[in-house]
Fold this protein.
Amino acid sequence: MVLKVFTDGGSRGNPGPSSIGIVMYINNKKIFQQREDIGVATNNEAEYQALIKALEILNPKLQIPNKFQISNFQSIKQIQFYSDSRLMVNQVNGMFKVKQGKIKEYILKIRMLEQEIGLPISYHLIPREENWEADLLVNSKS
């Protein structure tokens, strides 16, 4: 079974007040969504924080209190992440260099969380129109 995770992050002001959105699907059925304000950040930082939050939610070792419950997590064989952030997806996939120190820290955290989850994980760039649900969460009022 494949878990599809759509993430988005946005900032008003860049940097400015920021939020993240996460939407998860199994077999084309939405099983989870979350919106969170993250304080002041850049757009790029918000995109990374959305991805990291999704990985933390999926990490069975962290047991973060949230509404995310899959009755049989063991049935998930692969996790596919989708984002409209070209920079983030290409940096996480190793296609673009990471120069900024804060982003390097995010990448290290992502790699650690990937190992703890222990499943094949892939990252895919999609057009903004295909990421509309996560984008809607980011841009809605809390």
Summary: The chain has one domain: 2-139. DSSP finds four helices and five strands in the chain. The beta strands are 2-11, 16-26, 29-41, 78-83, 121-125. The longest helix spans residues 101-117.
